[in-house]
Amino acid sequence: MNLGVDILNIAQALCLLPLFYVLNQYIFRILEKKHDFFSKRLMNMLSVYHFLFGVIYYFYALGNPSDSKKYFSRVAETEHSWFHFFKTETHFIDFVSYPFIKYLGFNYEMSMLLFTWVGFLGFVYAYLFFKENISLEIKIFKKIDFLLLILFLPNMHFWTASLGKGAPIFLGLMFFAYAIKNPKERWITLLGGSLLVFAIRPHMLLLIAAGSIVGIMLCKNSIHWKKKAAFIGAMALGLLVFHEPILKVVHLNNSNDLIGDFLEFTRHRSHDLAESDTGVNMAGYSLPEKFFTFWFRPLFFDAPGFFGIIVSIENLIYLLIFAKIFRLKFFTFLKNAPAHVKTSLALFLITSFAMTFIMSNLGIIIRQKSMIMYFMLFVIYYYLGHEKARTIKLNPEKNIGQLPKAA
Asked: For the chain, how are helix, strand and coil distributed in percent, rounded to 5?
């Protein structure tokens, strides 16, 4: 199947833009009623920015290897029925795209645009996740609006603007992030996000469940023990129900020694990835070196080509942002931080720890870390908001979870 530039296909894809615009305005009106801070203007600007990255990725995919081509071709050329693809991981993306390609006649360009829109919805919920919890305007590097910087980081948009796993799993994670502040009222969003993550990357459900349980357990007095027990019980039940497909991802579903077999799997996986053109010898690194590589590389000294230079600039920004928390006040803040802050931190650290034993390829690292980086950025954003509240003489003990709106 020829997936080269086709003007007619592009024109057909552009015809979808008015539909997505109308859908966006409808969603924005609903969210505006729920959240008085919601800015339709900002979200419309963000949608234009994100769809531009959809165009950038499209032309990138035409001249480079891209899984988006395989996803489209596999569905377009299959003779199987729709529910043949009702499985986890790669086949779930086939399942989602199947009715659009087979029944509605979507071409490659239209399918790319559809998933670009799905990725944008993830950014809408990322905005809600940040803004709902910290409504103060936070400046970083003296003059830059921290929230705008977070929302417009280019690497995040690039990997969530194409047909593939990146867009829907980012949406699932942001559903989860938005819901964890108030899981009782947002249980549908929480469940939907969890199931979406499970369907695409089952092992990620294990990691976010572990992070959530750790975060809830670390909250001493802010959550009643009955609510803690109910939440932990629900997470544990979910893991029990889905443990078989989760372990199957890493070939441990028939294991009698989970820890030993997992370490063996990570050793082989790391070795295989390290042999690629952008491989790094993560297996020989100390734990701090593993974390640094996963969070901040490539940097300029090991950037793979022009694209690597762009990513290196973003990684440098991450490095400078992370430097904001290397102070005693941050650890004091964490002691009394609310549950969703501790959960975000635990989720980020646990996932980072697990992935550092598997990832040894800078190209894969760039994509994988974009899934979870927002959780740590949220922790830093909340901390800086808490510090700003203190400077305007607020009582942090009473307002740590309910910071006031900016005037």
From this structure: 75, 0, 25
Eight-class DSSP state of 91 = H
Provide the mean pLDDT of the chain: 82
What residue type is 124 in one-letter code?
Answer: V
Model confidence, pTM: 0.84
Q: Which of 213, 162, 173 is nearest to 196 (CA)?
A: 173
Q: CA 343 to CA 340: how far, in whole Å? A: 5
Structure-derived torsion over alpha carbons of residues 197, 203, 205, 207, reported in degrees to the nearest 10: -130
Helical spans, DSSP H, in 250-280: 258-274
CA–CA dist 113, 81 (Å, integer): 24
The secondary structure of 167-231 as a DSSP string is HHHHHHHHHHHHHTTSTTTTHHHHHHHHHHHHHH-HHHHHHHHHHHHHHHHT-SSSS-HHHHHHH
> Distance between CA 22 and CA 46 in Å, rounded?
15
> Phi first, then psi: what are they for 144, rounded to 5°?
-95, 130
CA–centroid distance for 360 within its chain: 20
In this predicted model, what pLDDT tens digit does every residue of 284-328 receive, in sequence order? Answer: 677 788 888 888 887 877 766 777 788 889 999 999 999 989 888
Q: Does residue 358 sit in helix, strand or coil? A: coil
Which residues, in sequence order, are CB contacts of 75 under 8 Å at separation 6+?
85, 94, 97, 98, 101, 102
Q: Which DSSP state fits 402?
A: S
Q: Which residues pair with 140 in a beta bridge?
A: 144
- Please give the Cα distance from 96 to 80 (Å, whole number): 14
- The helix (H) or strand (E) run that includes residue 406 is none
